[in-house]
Amino acid sequence: MTRLTQFATVCGLGVRRVIGRLRGAAPGRMSVCIAGVAIAVALLFVVTGLSIGLAGSSTVESENIDYWIVPDEGGAGSVPLQSEGARLSQVHTVSAELNRDDRIEYASPVVLQPLRIENPTTGDREYVVAVGVIPTGDQRRIADLNISSLDPDYQHYADGSYDGTWSGDIVASPTVVDRLALRPGDTVAVANSDRTLTLTKINDREMAAGFGEVPAIAMPLAELQTLTGLDTADEADQILVSTTNPAVESELANLYPRTDVVSRAGITGVDATPTNLPLAMALAATLVAGSIGIAFVATMMGLELTAGRKELAVLSAVGFSERARALVVVSETVTVAILGGILGVGLGVLTILGVNAGIASAVGVPSLATITPALVVYALLAAVAVGICAAPYPLYLTMRTNTLEELTR
Amino acid sequence: MSDSAVVCSNLTRQYADEGGILHEGGPTITALESVSLSIGVGEVVGVSGPSGSGKSTLLHLLAGLDTPTAGTITIQGTDISVLTGRQQTRFRRDNIGMVFQRFHLLPALTARENVALPLVQAGVSRGHRRERADELLTAVGLADRTAHRPGALSGGEQQRVAIARALAADPAVVIADEPTGELDRDTGDQVLDLLTQVSEDRAVVIASHDTYTLDRADRRIRLLDGVRQ
């Protein structure tokens, strides 16, 4: 038997002792300990999921966009849809300049606005998130919406005026198509406007994860600006810039005063948000959940060990070295934390689903908190870290256990 | 009976009075004084004496759980009185099996897992541990109780599991401290039968103040105030 196998076998004894106690030998303290960790991990999971949701929804994700120019206005960037936040102006002019730069593959202002649209045939109405972009003939996705189906012959806007041909093209997410019973070629009406839109293509997936399964459409920027009154100052919420040259970033930062240039990221994208709120939330959740978890596991495992010192003495009597006994105790502590972590992830998933469903039904706001595989892994790793950080106290008690004293007590 | 498995020479164990540190010239309590004995392979030796006579101290010294103040303990040719704590633990794992009055089984583990416990750190593979545990549990008449936890076993059954655990590593010496103390007479008889059976190829030391138990031993050593009578 190799040292590694021996290590695993001794650790396995710790795992079996935990499972044995849970299955009837002495489930009380152990169950409470696991429940404590579960609550801490669930808290971590929900708050971090919320943070990721907020961070993801404040910027539009795209496979091809590397940078966003976003207004540096506290708070506005942390909501899914900006209503009164700062915007960038003269965006067509700026993006045209950017597109002339050889280092930039594509640049487009982006407007995110809610629109109420209606299927005139059925009378079904729905609020959707409208994403306004400058179409391109290339295969390109913005917020997971494939904008290559929009007519690249961008005619409604030209030289500062918005009186060109109205295409009305939209690409709609499957949720929109389902709720309004649309088919490609169907026309929809826009509330408070005599303009109509035409479904050119059904998107093959829902909008970017940050928004959850929210009904969304992509359409030409200028037409969305016209529908929402943003044409007056040629405004947009942000400008997306796709480039392979990182040197561009510093130049982008100087295009507008009080703007941030942020880069695309995944789960760690919380630090790419215009505000640090989601990051602060995630950090706070980690600290609070970690502290609660460590305190809980250390205390409960300490009590468990204090009550079961005789068992450690028995291990010594049958030939377990001090190191092996320590390994058993650490593996027990980590096992408890992992079981708590698994339960906590389950609780967290249920809580997030509940919260999202509640918010959606109560105020009609799309899903805020996000569940991703990376978040699950993160929560489980946090649980393992809690177990390892909580281990020193049980270890200290183990080292203080006097075999002879315990066996003769 | 053949060669000596255990040889103790002038074994003395002193403790500092009132829990202080033991040092030369300081107040001490002598738990065992100049005890010499020899136990052969295949021999069952009973250690008798009233409470406080030094029975448990002698057993703890033989088991390597305690270190003598003076004298030597040689088991299978190794003087364990000079071993470090880690070496004593390793020696105990490979050479000594212990049976306690209160069984001391781990409640979260099954009978099989308890029996296999000494083999875990000894580096025995899982399959062999299981095989050995089942073999021993069958030998002590508990073939149908392998998956039961101690809480589901009677006192006699628990002590038989403890004996099986003591034999798992095939030790040269089995040390039993009041092995029938918590059992009724019939169950105690079964346990003593087992201990007698296992003495065929090893030394067995049983400490008890029960005359009936001691009568089952091949030879009896009596201690009084730490001194062999």
Structural overview:
The complex is a heterodimer of chains A (409) and B (229). With 409 residues, chain A is α+β, with helices and mostly antiparallel strands. Chain A is built from twelve helices and eleven strands. In chain A, a hairpin with a 2-residue loop joins strand 4 and strand 5. The longest helix of chain A has 42 residues. Chain A starts with a helix and ends with a helix. Chain B is an alpha/beta fold and 229 residues long. Chain B has one domain: Rossmann fold, CATH 3.40.50. In chain B, 32% of the residues lie in helices and 27% in strands. Chain B has seven helices and ten strands. Chain B has a six-stranded mixed β-sheet with strand order 6-7-8-3-9-10, with helices on both faces. In chain B, strands 2-1-4-5 form a four-stranded antiparallel β-sheet, with helices on one face. In chain B, helix 6 links the parallel strand 7 and strand 8. In chain B, helix 3 crosses helix 4 and helix 4 crosses helix 5. Chain B is globular and about 55 Å long. Chain B starts with a strand and ends with a strand. Classes of the chains: A alpha+beta (409), B alpha/beta (229). The interface between A and B is medium-sized, with 31 and 35 residues.
